[in-house]
Amino acid sequence: MLRRALINLVRNAAQAIKDSGRAEGKVEVRLGRERDWFIVDIDDDGPGIPPEMRSIIFDPYVTTKPDGSGLGLAIVKKIVVEHGGSVSAEKSPLGGARMHLRLPVAGTPAASAAFASRDRPAPPSSRRPDALIP
User: For the chain, which domains are there?
Assistant: First the structure.
């Protein structure tokens, strides 16, 4: 499911560039780690997301596309939250949109805390410590 979410975000970035009328553009994906969290940033140099929409863009049926259903980013958010993480829309240093994901590293206190507030147990800590939570 995380793979699906990431593919959706990269496709959205490429589509935003194409819909702006440009033949070429830039999409960058970065993965980093801050203590108990994996950080994934997907940046593009498209038109970006208006500041007033950044807080609602992950709600169902909200879209900036003329032909979009508004469900893609809602599904992304659901997948990320189900994995104990968070996602936000920001302005990219490339000039377009940045999708910023935080996902807990399996076997860390952040992963345990993310799952403690839910009805299902955290994955076993015997998993690789650098693996994403399923």
Answer: 2-116 (3.30.565.10)
